[in-house]
Amino acid sequence: EAGVAQSPRYKIIEKRQSVAFWCNPISGHATLYWYQQILGQGPKLLIQFQNNGVVDDSQLPKDRFSAERLKGVDSTLKIQPAKLEDSAVYLCASSLEAFLGEQYFGPGTRLTVT
Amino acid sequence: AQKITQTQPGMFVQEKEAVTLDCTYDTSDQSYGLFWYKQPSSGEMIFLIYQGSYDEQNATEGRYSLNFQKARKSANLVISASQLGDSAMYFCAMREGLGGYNKLIFGAGTRLAVHP
After folding, report:
1. Residue A32: closest CA among chain B residues belongs to which residue?
2. DSSP type of residue A81
3. A41-90, pLDDT tens digit by residue?
4. Cβ distance A95 to B101 under 8 Å?
5. Which residue has the higher pLDDT, B81 or B42?
6. How far is CA A42 from CA A27, A68, A114, B70, B89, in A?
7. Taking CA atoms, what residue in A is nearest to B36?
8. For a pLDDT cut of 90, what percent of chain A falls above it?
9. Chain B contact set for A95 (CB, 8 A)
């Protein structure tokens, strides 16, 4: 079974530029999550999708971050414009069930904003 | 308020010995779940073990066991017979409540170094 795929693995941009990350979850997983992991901290949930609907985006900085999952499968997370403090690893995860169940994580995208 | 506390920023252990990584949590829910994940230098989070709040037995998965002390709100991970490949970051996480969506809250992590 293929795991969660993410691209790119690394990205370096200047502040005020825009960037987009892509995630393809495990086949059949209805729930998809985006986490932000700042160096030295644990992951923090940014947004959670159930199929193509958002069920939790309470910690998403909506003035600059956006995410979509149009067909209920893969997802993109965008930052526009980026700030220095957005430097982090962005992890995508998926789970079979919305309420319970193990979350499977992708390898992450390491973003550096200069 | 901190929901998950991992007080050990770094730990080291000799190969083949056991090590305990500490985790305490804070919740007013009666139903919750506790997870441990491993994050090697490659970056992906690898699920290790799960303990439900109503589980009477401590969870075990191979060399991993979870020492669950509900009254003390602790969920320590025990790794037996450490291997060099166990060197990584380890995160404790909690899922609160039933009926709510599957949101995990992570601690800050403990970096484990296994020495030969």
Report:
1. B102
2. S
3. 999 999 999 888 998 899 999 999 999 998 889 999 999 999 999 999 99
4. no
5. B81
6. 26, 24, 22, 23, 10
7. A102
8. 81
9. 102
